[in-house]
Amino acid sequence: MYQKKKQLRIRTPEGISFALELASPLMRFFAWSIDALIIISLGIFLQQMIFTPIIKAAPDIGTGLYIVVTTALSLCYAMAMEWFWDGRTLGKRLFRLRVMDSNGFHLQPSQVVVRNLLRVVDSLPLLYLVGGAASFFSPLYQRLGDRVAGTVVVKLPRFNSPDLTAIGEQKFNSLRAYPHLVARLRQAVTPAEADIALQALRRRDTFDDLERTSLFDQLADHFKAKCSFPEEAVRTISSEQYLRNVVELIYSSGQ
Amino acid sequence: MILNIDTFIAEERPFWEELEGFLQRSGKEGGERFSLDEIRRFHYLYQRTSAGLGRLATFSAEPETKGYLENLIARAYADIHERRRIGWKRNKAQQLFRAFPQTFRHHINVFYLVLIITLVGASFGGFVLIKDPQAKAALLPFSHLHNSPEERVAQEMKEQGEHMSGHQAQFAGSLMAHNIKVAIFALGLGLTFGVGTLITLFYNGVILGAVSVDYIMAGQSTFLAGWLLPHGSIEIPAFLVAGQAGLVLAKALIGHGDRTPTSQRLRKILPDLTVLISGVAVMLIWAGLVESFFSQYHAPVIPYSLKISFGVIELLLLVLYLGLVGKQDDGRHDPS
Questions:
Q1: Which of A77, A81, B65, B284 has the fewest Cβ atoms surrounding its Cβ within 10 A?
Q2: Which residues of chain A from 16 to 35 reach within 8 Å of chain B, CB to CB?
Q3: Cβ contact (<8 Å) for B180 and A71?
Q4: d(Cα A8, Cα A139) in Å, to the nearest integer?
């Protein structure tokens, strides 16, 4: 099923509108879990490698320092990472997430500080239930700290072209002989439609024969309605082949 | 006009890559400063790429290129249209030293409210204890305060600080960590439109009032002053300022009499919250050290007169600092 993703849409003074995909609460929870693990691991590392010898030599000062350092680590880890790493912590980087100003600008230090301090409320009563609920019901997936700080967490896009080898090698594409129609097809098809066709072809072997034929017929009809190619170009090819041709034309840069 | 996507990408790609190069060079901290010609070129590339995105916008079957351009434009947009100052000013400590009292004074009316709520709480705590001394256990959350003040004073004089021996640094660290977390929580409770912050302030006042009345009624005023003043003269104001920050947040959320959108009101107070809570953290670090290494030692180890004088001097210096430092620039309040 294709679920519509929430986006941060910004219109520049030049009249250009661009959209950035917002990170879902679940994705953010996973990233936070990684960060929490990192903080705990760092705490254990510091205790074992640095503070244990210090505590042995000077128990009072060592323990006092350990308490201060681990508290500072838990409070400042996300702040420092987000400020010096352009809105990303290690967990966020792993999931290709980034904190940014909800107006599309760079983060200010005060935004980073406040959104992280307010974790004390968002993390209540446990496991970020308050923040998660606030984020779930927010149009921009903002937890309370984000709302106050005017920040959002966006998902950074990947720029890899889809792997078309998975849908089979195309020796001849009968639709390519009509470049003006190819251009019109590319214009008419949305990214979501193109992705559905690509996914259907990739998963062809997992479908039952009858279901596959029916699905490809439906998809082919859908794309034919978008842009009609001459009869001689489509007469001899099956719905599946038609779909392969369409997908190849949409995603490949063309010759 | 139908766009020839392949020709378009081939023609425009060098410009996109050049813009990307500019974006990599421009960073926040330590980013390169561009010459005027470079800035003009940067702006030209931004406009050209924006135009390219505009042309591609109707070409929705080219998601990769569109996504790439959107990301490029988003980054360039942040660089070109950002009007706020990016990054901390140089010499952060010096900046905070001046900005903290300035910000405190900028929201002084909120501080007065915080002070009144705490004093009302203290009066209530003291009044309840006078009327019903049995209520002590219910009013005071800390078990070591449930005993009679006379017993505690006798115990402290007998031990002469021995119980603290070898634990001062650990105690100081725990105090700092705990108090800073409590202060951040007081700020965070501003999100409840100030209700949570007000309750916290009132309750802290109740505890303070009850303890004070308990020791005064037992004739241990000198011990109380000697015990509380050295660290309390900084710690208690620090909690009040944290409460002030919480109420500043609440005020921006409520926006009474202010027609600007909530998001703008919140943006406006973000630097103030940061400065206030940073100042509070510094105060609590100092208070933690004093409480652990000084307040817990009583006469005859440290004479009460010395402890009380120390606390009074601290309080006076704090009042002078918060009242006077940076006052000549108060009209230009800009903690960012």
A1: A77
A2: 16-20
A3: yes
A4: 9
**Across-strand partners of A154?**
A22, A98
CA distance B326 to B317: 15
List the 195-254 stretch of A: residues with Cβ below 8 A of B: 195, 250, 253-254
Write the residue in B9, B79, B270 that is nearest to A114 by C-beta.
B270
Please report where in the chains the tokens 């030049």 appear, as a residue: A14
Cα atoms found within 13 Å of the Cα of residue B153, Cβ hemisphere only: 18
Question: 172-191 in A: which are within 8 Å (CB) of B?
Answer: 180, 183-191
- Six-digit token string for A234: 């489509």
Which residues in chain B are closer than 8 Å to A157, comparing Cβ atoms?
67-68, 70-71
CB contact burial B92-110 (16+ within 10 A = b; e otherwise): eeeebeebbbbbbbbbeeb
**Residues whose CB is less than 8 angstroms from the CB of residue B15 and which lie 6 or more positions away in sequence, other chains included:** B45, B48, B49, B52
> Could you give the percent of chain A with pLDDT greater than 70?
91
Residues in chain B with CB shorter than 8 Å from the CB of A111 are: 270
- C-alpha closest to that of A206 among A166, A244, A175: A166
Which is it for strands A17-21 and A7-11: parallel, antiparallel or unpaired?
A: antiparallel
Q: How far apart are CA B194 and CA B202, in angstroms?
A: 12
Strand ranges, E, within A77-220: 97-101, 151-155
Residue A160 has pLDDT above 60, yes or no: no
Query: Closest Cα partner for A157 from B110, B310, B174, B69?
Result: B69
Tens-digit pLDDT profile for residues A195-254: 788 888 888 888 888 888 899 999 999 998 888 888 888 888 888 889 888 888 877 654
Interface of B with A in 230-269 (CB under 8 A): 249, 263, 266-267
B48: nearest Cα among B33, B64, B24, B69: B69
Dist CA B36 CA A23 (whole Å)? 37
Chain A positions in Cβ-Cβ contact with residue B31 (cut-off 8 Å): none
Q: Is B29 on the interface with A (CB under 8 A)?
A: yes
- CA–CA min distance B168, chain A (Å): 7
Alpha carbon B16 to its chain centroid, in Å, reads 42
Percent of chain B scored above 90 by pLDDT?
53
pLDDT tens for chain B, 336 residues: list them.
Answer: 455 666 777 788 888 888 888 887 776 545 667 888 888 898 899 888 888 888 776 665 566 777 778 888 888 888 887 766 655 555 677 788 999 999 999 999 999 999 999 999 999 999 999 999 888 888 887 777 778 888 888 887 777 777 777 888 999 999 999 999 999 999 999 999 999 999 999 999 999 999 999 999 999 999 999 999 999 999 999 999 999 999 999 999 999 888 899 999 999 999 999 999 999 999 999 999 999 999 888 878 889 999 999 999 999 999 999 999 988 877 666 665
Residue of B nearest to A249 (CA): B61
